[in-house]
Amino acid sequence: MHIEVLPLSQPRQPQQDESKLVFGKSFTNRMFTLRFDRGQGWHTPRIEPYGPFSLDPAALVLHYAQEIFEGLKAFRRSDGSIALFRPRDNFARFNRSAERMCMPQLDIDFCMTALRQLLELEKEWVPHSHGTSLYIRPTMIATEPVLGVKPADQYLFYIILSPVAAYYKGGVNPVRIWVSDDYVRVAPGGTGEAKTGGNYASSLYASALAAQKGYDQVLWLDGVQRKYIEEVGSMNICFVYDGKVVTSPLTGSILDGITRRSVLALVRDMGYAVEERALSIDEVLDGAENGRLQEAFGTGTAAVVSPVGELTYRDRTVRLGQGQAGKLTMELYDRLTGIQYGRLPDLHNWIELL
Ligand SMILES: *Cc1c(COP(=O)(O)O)cnc(C)c1O
């Protein structure tokens, strides 16, 4: 499929003061769009000026939330080259989310071609300062205008780009976590493994309660027994327990994070034993108190790793690492960002240069 490039009438310039970039608030000049009609398949690939869509008020996405998305980053390196981190893994996961939400599959090679062509045109928007990046948001929405509950016959796939500041400006600060007891993110058999908008809408209430109480993030327990650790905010979570790295297994209710996968590969390289197993909240709190739990950190594309400094469950609060990020947490942050920005060798072939 040939990608048509539409002209820009009023190009904007990237923000000069890169420290002022706010996550997801500003976007580049152009976006990629692709349409799907049942019977015809994907058609009309375009790179066009960034701007609002015209959408029928009955579009299925607006009523029944048939929507999926991805999040990945492009990094500018000191030699001026631009690197993508495991982008094919994101598009593969996008297709798995699509299947779960009854949406059409995309050809991963075509997505890569489209993304590369878009980035080539927008490369001046990949910021230069230390720790900055260009966040990439592929999205698919159901556009067919009909109020019946069913998989849509029409979709729009698009990719938008947003320059983002360094996630950690004043050092990597541990976060305070509130363990949600009354609310769950998903239940077994639900859509927890799909990156679909509804999962985030349903998480807002507990997040708002946690914020009201002064916490940074919510830790989600399993939807049945409300006992086993699942995720934290929209990150996966890892623990250093008895010197081993322990994380929740991929049982279908948590997201199969690419940062999670990368962190597990790196800790295996470093000689750590990895356990993907159910870990109860009691085991975590007891471990924090008796010293068997040394570190806890969230993993995700935005933050890379996010150290946990404090956990509150019901009326019990425990602290980890005396306000400091853990040693392994920081080592993983340095290794993963080192690979992304080209300071360290890419031994796993995770990097695709533009
Ligand atoms: C995106 C996401 C993650 C992290 O995935 P990465 O691929 O590492 O960015 C974890 N949990 C949820 C719920 C997510 O949406």
TrEMBL record:
EC number, UniProt record: 2.6.1.42
Keywords: Amino-acid biosynthesis, Aminotransferase, Branched-chain amino acid biosynthesis, Pyridoxal phosphate, Transferase
Pathway participation: Amino-acid biosynthesis; L-valine biosynthesis; L-valine from pyruvate: step 4/4; Amino-acid biosynthesis; L-isoleucine biosynthesis; L-isoleucine from 2-oxobutanoate: step 4/4; Amino-acid biosynthesis; L-leucine biosynthesis; L-leucine from 3-methyl-2-oxobutanoate: step 4/4
Gene3D superfamilies: 3.30.470.10, D-amino Acid Aminotransferase, subunit A, domain 2
UniProt xrefs under Pfam families: Aminotran_4
Cofactor needs: pyridoxal 5'-phosphate
InterPro entries in UniProt: Aminotrans_IV (IPR001544), Aminotransferase-like (IPR036038), B_amino_transII (IPR005786), BCAT-like_C (IPR043132), BCAT-like_N (IPR043131), BCAT_family (IPR033939)
Enzyme type, top EC level: transferase
One GO BP: L-leucine biosynthetic process
Catalyzed reactions per annotation: L-isoleucine + 2-oxoglutarate = (S)-3-methyl-2-oxopentanoate + L-glutamate; L-leucine + 2-oxoglutarate = 4-methyl-2-oxopentanoate + L-glutamate; L-valine + 2-oxoglutarate = 3-methyl-2-oxobutanoate + L-glutamate
Function, as annotated: Acts on leucine, isoleucine and valine.
GO MF annotation: an example: branched-chain-amino-acid transaminase activity
Name listed for the protein in its UniProt record: branched-chain-amino-acid transaminase
Sites bearing N6-(pyridoxal phosphate)lysine, chain numbering: 195
Family statement: Belongs to the class-IV pyridoxal-phosphate-dependent aminotransferase family.
